[in-house]
Structures are given as C-alpha cells and as structure tokens.
Design goal:
With 195 residues, the chain is α/β, with parallel strands linked by helices. The chain has one domain: Rossmann fold (3-Layer(aba) Sandwich), CATH 3.40.50. The chain contains 5 helices and 7 strands, in the order ααββαββαβαββ. β6 and β7 form a beta hairpin.
Length: 195
Amino acid sequence: MRIYRRLLLAYNKLLAAAFGLDPWHAGLALDRLYPADIIAYLNKRGETARESAIEIGCGLGDILVRLNYKTKIGYDSDGAVLKAAKFKNMLSFQNKTQFVQLDFPGSFPNGKHDAIILVNWIHHLAPETLKSSVRVLYEKHLNPAGEIILDTVADPEYSHNHSMNEVVSGLNCRVLKIGDYPRGREIYSLLKSPQ
C-alpha cells in the first residue's frame, strides 16, 4: 500500500505540474482520513439512493470517482483543475465521472441529486453566502431523502470558521456528524426527510 500511495502522489505531482495547478492539488485524498470516511459513508446508502452524486469544488475528483453512483458529476471553477481531473479520470479504471466548470455560488448545478458534496473549500465563503447557497442546494437540487455533505473547520488560519448551527438554521433537515479530523475539521451530512 505504501508503494501504491507513493506512485499516486508522484502521479498527482506530475499532473499538478503539467496543468499548472496549485501544489496542494498534488496531495492525496487517500492520505487524509475524511475523504475515505465520506466515500465509505455514501457508498453504504441503498442502491436506489445512489442514482446521482455531485461534488462542487471537486478538484481532481478523488472523492467522487470512488463513489458507487450511477451518475457522478464534478464541478469546479478552475478550468485547469477540470482538465487535469478529466485526464486523470480518462486514464483510470474507475467508473467514468463527468467534470463541468461551474462558478459556484454565482451559478448552481442542474437537476436534483441524491448526494451533494461541498468539502475542503467552503471556508472561503462568507457565512451568509454559505448559508444561502446551502439553502438553494437543499431546496432546489436535492432529491427527497438526499443529503448534503459538508465540512466546518475551527482553525484561525482559514478565512471563515463556520458554525453548523448557523448553516442549517431554518432548514428542515437532520444533521448527522460523520467525524472529527485534524485542524478542527468536522464532516456533516444534512439529510433531507421525504416530504
């Protein structure tokens, strides 16, 4: 496993260099605990609840490509990152994933989905922007019994340290904590109850 991780890390570094990406894109989701927990959590859903998953701010798609969903779409605002993700996905033996440019929260994805993932970047959004964006995703883009996966951080080095209570204020959802991680990161699921 150690050799496999080294090879993947070298591959990601080559991708980052070839596509001119910020160096943090070269890191491996496999080396962080929370992506593996998100993947395991979402893949445990029943087959009928695994039709469509999207990830906004997908980066190279390390979480999304490992999900067992029929339709998987990764959205990112950075065109170079999307080119690298498409290239990486094309060479993998994973189920194919679509990658689409999206200037979120200025624009929103199409359709309704069973899982919407927003992790490892939402600390850049102001609290009111995050709250209103989550509300739109929850009310207009989430299937009945679907869920939004997102994280909060408690680290002064980040732009914003969001409160989950504030994010979900006014939403009729059930909040489930998936886990706690370094730098005060907490991963949550916002579960939508069938109407």
